[in-house]
Amino acid sequence: DGGITQSPKYLFRKEGQNVTLSCEQNLNHDAMYWYRQDPGQGLRLIYYSQIVNDFQKGDIAEGYSVSREKKESFPLTVTSAQKNPTAFYLCASRRLRQGVNTEAFFGQGTRLTVV
Amino acid sequence: DQQVKQNSPSLSVQEGRISILNCDYTNSMFDYFLWYKKYPAEGPTFLISISSIKDKNEDGRFTVFLNKSAKHLSLHIVPSQPGDSAVYFCAVLDRGSQGNLIFGKGTKLSVKP
């Protein structure tokens, strides 16, 4: 089955620790995205990548880092610099085709809690 | 400032009736609009989309209407079912930011039996 897999589903982190959230897709999509969801805030874009070895900051990139070494993988690291990391994190991917509108597909999300 | 606004945080509807979810956007250059449905602790799932060359798109019980002059779109669900209870997000494709999706804050729909 094709899709996007995020792991783990639940993650607990101590203050001051870095933690990495995994996102893998086998849809052969070009673009991948990380969003953060907080209550009443909708989905806010953290980072995105349209091609391997290239990525750009979204609206709330501070305290986060990403890599795109493979087309299928787009891991997100939540660093100790992120002041309020407790949230629900969503990874998405989208096929890019010139002149064609396409929707994004989402993973099941990772709930990160700082303890 | 929000580019996509869903001004109703919640909506309650009786089973069998119509649900109407609204969304406003600020940029007249936006030309592709999407609706997503999300259950708690799950990722959003794509529901329906519309291009600016149309004013209506229908898929089963779901219809999206686009009013470009008002920069407004709406999602109609007829008839509403209890399983439709979820948070609905409106999104627009922002070609200016390399094709990212900008989401509204969502509307929580409750369909009562």
- What Rg of chain A is obtained from the alpha carbons, in whole angstroms? 14 Å
Helix proportion of chain A: under 10%
List unreliable stretches of 5+ residues of chain A: none
Span between N and C termini of chain A?
35 Å
Largest interface: A-B, 29 and 24 residues
Can you tell me the overall shape of chain A? globular
Order of H and E elements of chain B: EEEEEEEEEEE
Share in helix of chain B: under 10%
Query: Which class do the helix and strand fractions of chain B yield?
Result: mainly beta
Can you characterise this structure?
The complex is a heterodimer of chains A (115) and B (113). Chain A is 0% helix and 51% strand. In chain A, a hairpin with a 3-residue loop joins strand 4 and strand 5. Chain A is built from no helices and 11 strands. Chain A is mostly beta strands. Chain B is mainly beta. Chain B has strands spanning 4-5, 10-14, 19-25, 32-38, 45-51, 56-59, 62-67, 72-77, 86-94, 100-103, 107-112. In chain B, the strands form 2 sheets. In chain B, strands 2, 4, 5, 9, 10 and 11 form a 6-stranded mixed β-sheet that branches. A 5-stranded antiparallel β-sheet of chain B has the order 1-3-8-7-6, with no helix packed on it. Chain B starts with a strand and ends with a strand. The chains are: A mainly beta (115), B mainly beta (113). At the A-B interface, strand 4, strand 5, strand 9 and strand 10 of A face strand 4, strand 5 and strand 10 of B.
Which terms would index this structure?
heterodimer; A: mainly beta; seven-stranded mixed sheet; four-stranded antiparallel sheet; globular; B: 113 residues; mainly beta; six-stranded mixed sheet
